[in-house]
Amino acid sequence: MTTDTEEPSLTVDELAARAGVTVRTVRFYGTRGLLPPPVIGPRRVGRYGREHLARLELIEELQQQGMTLAAIERYLERLPPDLSAHDLAVHRAVVAAWAPDAVETVTREQLVRRAGRPLTDDDVERLAAMGVVGAADDGGYRVDLGLFRLGVRLLDMPLSQEALLTARGVLIGHSRQAARELSELLRGETAERDARDVRSLSAHMQPLVVQALLTAFQRSLKEEVGAWLAQEPPPSTSATSTPDSE
Fold it and tell me: Is 39 helix (H, G, I), strand (E, B) or coil?
């Protein structure tokens, strides 16, 4: 599995393929300062890391929302300069909160390029079971772009497919319950308002609610994992060790 602290290992071609953009686009973003420069490795070859990919994905998400390049530059300038790939992914999730569902039909080759790694038939089956990939009428694959990168990362998790599907069911169930209760709250607060005002308020609230849910979940998960680890017994001492002689 990869971590945010890994050495940059992607060439510009690999970065572009992983993000689903052209090399020309990557270089253009670099000249505009939207992407930090690559790390120059042996033979003067630029290498990109997970932070570059996460920032590129955020830029693409902002563009899909209709933001101009100048607006994207202002948005990125307001972000702390040392954000990790994880932090950037959270920002992208909030931006995507008000985006319409995006589904694209691709070939197997395009699917592999988007994944940035080989995909076995078993991998594709697991992605299909997660609801990320489905069969298209023309023999290709229908891909949920909002979930695809997450699904690919889950392939490397040391969890069984059954555990992943159970976790997916838990998250969907709780998110639907939260959405239902928040909708009831919104309905009570806007009972006397015009329908257009209600839709406008809902649209403005959605990214804020997603940010709140992400923050609350991250903190709760950290607390739960911390409590779980605190209950773990300390590692046993070596069988060869003996008490100090008096």
Answer: strand
